[in-house]
Amino acid sequence: MAKKTEPVMGNDASTVRDVAARAGVSASTVSRVLGGTYPVAASTRARVLKAMRELDYVVNAHARALGGSTNKTVAFVVDDVTGPFYAHIARGVEEQASAEGRLCMLCTTHGDPQRVLAVVETMREQRADAVIVVGGAWEDKAYQDRMTHFAHALDRVGSRLVLVGRPPLGPGVPATVVEYDNEGGAFAMTTHLLTSGHQRIAYLGRVPGLSTSDQRLSGFRRAHELLGLAPDPKLILDGTFSRSHGYQGARQLLASGAEFTAVFAGTDMVAAGALQALREARVSVPDDVSVVGYDDVPLALDLFPSLTTVNVPHEELGRAAVRLALHREELPGSQHLVLGTHIVLRDSTRRPGR
After folding, report:
1. pLDDT by residue, tens only, the chain of 354 residues
2. Which of these, 122, 14, 117, lies nearest to 62 by C-alpha position?
3. Cβ atoms of residues 204 and 264 within 8 Å
4. What is the spatial distance between Cα 107 and Cα 132, in angstroms, rounded to a whole number?
């Protein structure tokens, strides 16, 4: 028979007895629910789990052995590791974690905000040294409030929430933030296109409510405003950061008969789809239409023509996330870092009418 593991509390403010009192059951019943070794009525289990959530009780079977310490693990939480943007940040995280003597654990969420919350909670129970969440944040107050709660909860058990490529949760929240100048990169790229003579620029890949997209579109609009211009709303298409959206979006623009001389794709993957659609329609890039992307993933060099894009320091984002989180006591004033971006000019752009 397998040896029963007695659950050990991770939150000092709550005990098994507290959970039992809240649920209206005995402490031994709570232990049975936590241990999972004895049958418990479904309604009773539901009451116990509800009480645990309300009391913020953390089950951690390893906490006693660890004596309150973390478990030498860094968790990397990402939508989809197959995407090149995430893969290169992951490389930086893994390299720095290894150098710091930590094991890197990969957790994928498939773009589901609730899955992000569930993974962060699990990593809190496992007492990871740091929980690194990568990618844009959704404008959802309940989600932001829950992430703020987890930041404090992780801090109480000696762990650290790290946000990469997303804005801070607010003043006083114990989290490490490693951003890049997202809006500035879009502003610089749009300014380059406008000053090169492109006054009608289509924007593909607006994702309303996603911080990454909102910041890029803000830079796009700010560049127009600075030069006394206004982007045509009909040329801004909602979609996703995917190759398929770039393809369908470019086809939609062409079918509408809209006039444009340049396409700003929200990511390099969106740009790849747009290039394919333009090529199939016998629209020459850059002779007829210039195309730019964002991220500067390796794909950008392999496209034909090679893609003008905004460079993001992917691997340094990952390295900095681990370094700042693990050494936060030594670097208390450096827990919000913004890395620079810059445009990379390649063959997919030129002045219109040349």
Report:
1. 443 333 333 443 467 788 889 889 887 788 777 665 467 788 888 888 888 878 777 655 444 333 445 678 999 998 887 778 888 999 999 999 999 999 999 888 887 888 888 888 888 878 889 999 998 888 888 888 988 998 998 998 889 999 999 999 999 999 999 999 999 999 999 999 999 999 999 999 999 999 999 999 999 999 999 999 999 999 999 999 999 999 999 999 999 999 999 999 999 999 999 999 999 999 999 999 999 999 999 999 999 999 999 999 999 999 999 999 999 988 777 899 999 999 999 999 999 876
2. 122
3. yes
4. 10
